[in-house]
Write a structure and sequence with these properties.
- By secondary structure, the chain is an alpha/beta fold.
- The protein folds into 2 domains: 208 residues, Enolpyruvate transferase domain (UDP-n-acetylglucosamine1-carboxyvinyl-transferase, Chain), CATH 3.65.10.10; 215 residues, Enolpyruvate transferase domain (UDP-n-acetylglucosamine1-carboxyvinyl-transferase, Chain), CATH 3.65.10.
- The chain is built from 13 helices and 24 strands.
- Strand 22, helix 12 and strand 23 form a beta-alpha-beta unit.
- Helix 8 runs parallel beside helix 12 and helix 10 packs parallel to helix 12.
- The radius of gyration is 21 Å and the shape is globular.
- The N terminus is likely disordered.
Length: 451
């Protein structure tokens, strides 16, 4: 891997971004059932967890199945600027861990729009015995909350100052170690705050007791964090409800680690099969995953799809017409909310999506943005505080904004393929998680025109 350039795109695009210079993507209509086999890129969630843990581990790690996206690029860039030796060869990366003592005493870091990196780095930087680290983010990430995490880390001795809004990026971390102790946090806004604290806790000088004062909004992602921590040699004692964690001082250890495919990205390709009456097989993810978004196939089954489930493979076959009349709590799989909203106009009755108020604070206000897009397409939609009600209809062609949100872009592309087509602005935003998305659509026979 060549030396990473210091230039940083204010929108978070990296040299790994696809569709450089492309302003629009026109998608569909496909006009026939979509059938084929897909191999989905690696999980964003697991990629950034593994990169951070390998970086602070003692010894070397080899990670396979790396997601080559904007978020992972900026995570690797940060590790390199912190003095960690990182070598990337395709989708394999070798990292010589620093043992939580960053070789660089000072560093200027840019993390793009990588929310996971923005929530995982502050703790592991603060845990170092010394150092001064300045962190900038994209304009989008600067608007997203991080104060609850920083307040909890401050209770353990972390020192952070801000160059803009309090509790937000950009910020400077003056590392002097974490002393341990007892801390309480809310899990209602983002599970990533809990994960960020858990990742840092084993590096504290003494034990850490973490109490979650309310329900974690997406507890499966915290379990994914615990699994990844355990893979790198550090454990936490916790109750079944994930309301209390006890973490003793430990050190992460380097290892070989295979990153599994991304379940959230999988939803778009199986949705294409569902909405066109086709058949799509995904060959590198199945029921063995803990990623919550794979539960989307259960929703598709309720809508009349035939599902083949294996530990490492799934197949979805769509019906002649999707069944509606459903109310679905999307909270456990909130990243798939927009995918379901894209399918809902093609069902035979309205579909109600609930439990996802928190996605208003993601890359965009996803509830409002999707409601606006569906209305522009001529679809009846009711925006609710925690979700959407989408009625059946015949979506017309429209030019739509993606709002620099990869999930908005990919969901609307699926809808356009099944209907009269869409013209999407700024399609390169898909590089956050799936730079090859439009290429993969084309391989499945979906008309895609880039300009």
């Amino acid at each position: 891997m060549s030396e990473i350039a210091p230039a940083a795109d204010a929108d978070g695009r990296s040299p790994w971004a696809g569709l450089q210079g492309v302003r629009f993507a026109e998608v569909g209509p496909v006009g026939r059932p979509v059938s084929g086999t897909v191999v989905v890129p690696g999980s964003k969630s697991f990629t950034n967890r593994a990169l951070i843990l390998a970086g602070v581990a003692e010894g070397s790690s080899t990670l396979s199945g790396l997601l080559r996206s904007d978020d992972s690029f900026w995570c690797i860039d940060a590790l390199k600027r912190l003095g960690v030796d990182v070598e990337v060869d395709g989708t394999t990366v070798r990292i010589d861990g620093c043992g939580a003592r960053w070789p660089a005493a000072e560093a200027d870091l840019f993390i793009g729009s990588a929310g996971t990196v923005g929530r995982f780095l502050p703790g592991v930087l603060s845990a170092a015995p010394a150092g001064r680290y300045r962190i900038r983010a994209s304009r989008q990430l600067e608007k997203r909350p991080v104060a609850p995490l920083l307040e909890a880390l401050a209770a353990l001795g972390a020192r952070t100052t801000h160059q803009g809004q309090p509790g937000a990026y950009p910020m400077t971390i003056a590392a002097s170690g974490l002393h341990g102790g007892r801390v309480a946090m809310s899990g209602r806004v983002s599970s990533q705050f809990i994960s960020g604290m858990l990742i840092a806790a084993p590096l504290a000088a003494s034990s850490v007791r973490l109490d979650v004062v309310d329900r974690i909004v997406q507890s499966d992602y915290v379990r994914m964090t615990l699994d990844t921590m355990a893979a790198f040699g550090a454990g936490a004692i916790h109750d079944d409800a994930l309301s209390r964690f006890d973490i003793e001082p430990q050190r992460y250890r380097g290892r070989s680690y295979a990153i599994e495919a991304d379940a959230s990205t999988t939803t778009y390709f199986v949705a294409l099969a569902a909405v066109t009456g086709g058949r799509v097989a995904v060959d590198n993810i199945g029921t063995a995953t803990r990623q919550p978004d794979l539960r989307f196939i259960d929703v598709l089954e309720r809508m009349g799809c035939a599902i083949e489930r294996r530990p490492d493979r799934i197949v979805v076959a769509g019906p002649a017409r999707l069944r509606g009349g459903l109310t679905v709590d999307m909270n456990p799989m909130s990243d798939a909310t927009l995918t379901l909203a894209a399918l809902a106009p093609f069902a035979d009755a309205p579909i109600v999506m609930t439990g996802v108020a928190h996605i208003r604070k993601h890359e965009s206000d996803r509830i409002a943005v999707m409601a606006q897009a569906l209305a522009a397409l001529g679809i009846g939609v009711e925006e609710r505080p925690d979700g959407l009600v989408v009625s059946p209809g015949r979506p017309r062609f429209a030019e739509l904004e993606t709002h620099d949100d990869h999930r908005v872009a990919m969901s609307l592309a699926v809808l356009g393929a099944a209907a009269s087509g869409v013209r999407l602005s700024d399609p390169g935003c898909v590089s956050k998680t799936c730079p090859v998305f439009f290429e993969a659509l084309g391989a499945l026979g979906v008309p895609v025109s880039l300009s």
